[in-house]
Amino acid sequence: MSFLYPRTVEVRRLRRDVTPAILANFEPDAGYSGAEQNTVATDPNSEVTLYKGVCCQISATQSGRTKDGILPTDATSKPQYLIVIPSSNLPQYSVRDRDIVIDDEGYRHIVTSNNWTSLGYNLFVIRLEA
Hints:
Blueprint: E1 7-14, H1 20-25, E2 47-62, E3 65-66, E4 76-77, E5 80-86, E6 100-103, E7 108-117, E8 120-127
Antiparallel strand pairs: 1-2, 1-6, 2-5, 3-4, 5-8, 6-7, 7-8
């Protein structure tokens, strides 16, 4: 952690049953290749941890929308954030869209768009809610 990057995150990826040959041939009868429930009790989210303790900066970009209400005190839904990770912490091509990012406060985010720059990653994420 540093002055510019005071937060830490963990990057995870959903397990998928996909083989490169299926993706390369675009076979229509290849079966389901999305996220599946894991049968291992120790990993209920069916996620593989890729990186832990990654220093970053997290900034809110949009506050989100209200849930089924119009009162000022109604809770917001799907707030959006920008997570900036320096290039010294993660190599290029290490984060993909739909990866899960868990911040140091325990909030889970899904990557909607990842952008590599000469300074590192800009991850546009949406906070996941139960």
